[in-house]
Design brief:
Blueprint: H1 5-35, E1 62-67, E2 70-78, E3 81-83, E4 86-90, E5 93-101, E6 106-110, E7 115-119, E8 125-131, E9 135-140, E10 153-159
Parallel strand pairs: 2-5, 4-10
Antiparallel strand pairs: 1-2, 2-3, 5-8, 6-7, 9-10
Bound molecules: dinuclear copper ion (CUA).
Dinuclear copper ion binds next to loops.
Length: 162
């Protein structure tokens, strides 16, 4: 070995990772897009934000019983209210919130349970959560949406099992 050959090894130690890392990232991208099927939100998860009030299921906001202990809440957010404002379900229910915004970006946050989502105009957001403990849960908008953002709230009332 020539005396300066370590310089080449040192360069090689940098060059190889600088090729391997982008190649690894590209492979991860290809695997997640085509293997795991992870994509940007498609049209099937969207409604026309200017026609939210006319489009199912948002033309009839409210609570729908899907089966024993399973409920779907069709919820519309707008400045500065949630519709429905109040949701009542029995304790132990599994509730799926299907919601969107009519106007600007709102938030859907229910402290105490695992609901913390953004509501983008026309983008349908689905969150499923189980309410085991009876009580009153606030439904809060936690994305700044204008002057009366701080009063934008609703509630989920979880009734004790009869
Ligand atoms: Cu809606 Cu803040």
């Amino acid at each position: 070995m020539r005396p300066n050959s370590t310089v080449h090894l040192y360069e090689l130690a940098w060059i190889l990772p600088s090729i391997a890392i982008p190649v690894g990232m590209l492979v991860a991208l290809i695997v997640s897009a085509f293997g795991a099927g992870i994509h940007l939100p498609g049209d099937e998860g969207r409604v026309d934000p200017t026609k939210v009030a006319q489009m199912a299921p948002f033309n009839q906001p409210g609570v729908v019983e899907l089966g024993p202990g399973r409920y779907e809440v069709r919820m519309v957010a707008q400045v500065w209210a949630f519709e429905p404002r109040e949701v009542r379900v029995p304790a132990g229910s599994t509730v799926t919130f299907v919601s969107t915004s009519k106007d600007v970006v709102h938030g859907l946050f229910i402290p105490g349970v695992n609901v913390n989502a953004m509501l983008l105009p026309g983008q349908v957001t689905r969150v499923t959560v189980r309410f085991d403990r009876p009580g009153e849960y606030p439904v809060l908008c936690h994305e700044y949406c204008g002057l009366a953002h701080h009063i934008m709230e609703g509630k989920v009332i979880v009734e004790p099992k009869s």
